[in-house]
Amino acid sequence: MKSLVYKIAETENEFEQIFRLNYKIFTEEIPQNEANTEKRLVDRFHAENTYLICMEGDRLLGMMAMRDTRPFSLDEKLQNLDSYLPPYQFICEIRLLAIEPDKRSTRVFGGLGLLAARYCDEHDYDLAVMSGTTRQAKLYKHLGFTAFGPLVGTGDILFQPMYMTLEAYQKLKASAKIFTDPFRK
Description:
The chain has 185 residues and is an alpha+beta fold. The protein has five helices and eight strands, in the order E-H-E-E-H-E-H-E-H-E-E-E-H. It starts with a strand and ends in a 10-residue tail after the last helix.
């Protein structure tokens, strides 16, 4: 794998690739959106999202969106979301984790996780929530996420609401090797 760059998306080319990766993953692979001839999917929260991305040259390999504006997508799926959560000061939602299929068993995921942790540290978030695909529930639990509430979604496309506290993240970071810093040369 060539040199990877982890960053916040900022260019028109990066955003266009985000829209195409969103379509590929969340329309073709996980069919939760309507197909379209453009093969691009602009998230309904696009204007509020901060996209954390992994680039290899000019190619987007993976991304996730962070946002802290309520209501979250989980607020719309679970009545009284806060009743399921531990106390917090500052909360964010992690959304749209997508990695190119041929890059899923590489360091792309770990680097995005570290970038998300840094982003949360910089913004003083002490709680992160997400809807994780049930296909990867074991991985999310291993990373320190706690499942809560009923499954959300429809039909065969189900997601587990999850959260990670600052304490869980710090414990994981202290004990896990997955936080080898991919940014170091």
